[in-house]
Amino acid sequence: EADIYQTPRYLVIGTGKKITLECSQTMGHDKMYWYQQDPGMELHLIHYSYGVNSTEKGDLSSESTVSRIRTEHFPLTLESARPSHTSQYLCASKRQGGTEAFFGQGTRLTVV
Amino acid sequence: AQSVTQPDIHITVSEGASLELRCNYSYGATPYLFWYVQSPGQGLQLLLKYFSGDTLVQGIKGFEAEFKRSQSSFNLRKPSVHWSDAAEYFCAVAPDSNYQLIWGAGTKLIIKP
What we know:
The complex is a heterodimer. Chain A is globular.
């Protein structure tokens, strides 16, 4: 069983609010990822990190930001939520040189 | 550009019947190939992967997949499905294990009693 946790699992929030989605892993993995997942669509990579103080944007443009101050923690922040941000957000991690990505259970965000 | 195609948005099979889920990719060389499963309300779990060697790979939960280079395919199979197999299945490819995964849109598997 993967030791990667996302909170909250579900979030309904009003437009304009600032939110932070939490992701933590206890496996000591260097690589961490945030994906956006919409029904019937492929997962899109929005951010990734290869280690502490390393963050990169993925192939899908996103208004969110991330930080990686500690190995185990990779939070995603939306400064001003909009209805277009409504989606499921999946966090994943992988060890350096590893082949398998481990996923959290996801955060389903609804912006009203 | 690299892409992954899962032609079936959803598939319905009877419990106990065999299953094949299709996956095709476009990439010049042989990429690393993966199948993940996502149960309702859960994250994704790796079922199996192919890097090289025997083109028929075995995974967890009784699944297997066959890599066919000539068809650029990596189809997932199971001889007899169980109701607990109802989930969404995602095929993914990566040029190598350090690169980002490129995902298919998923196939939703529905099991009829």
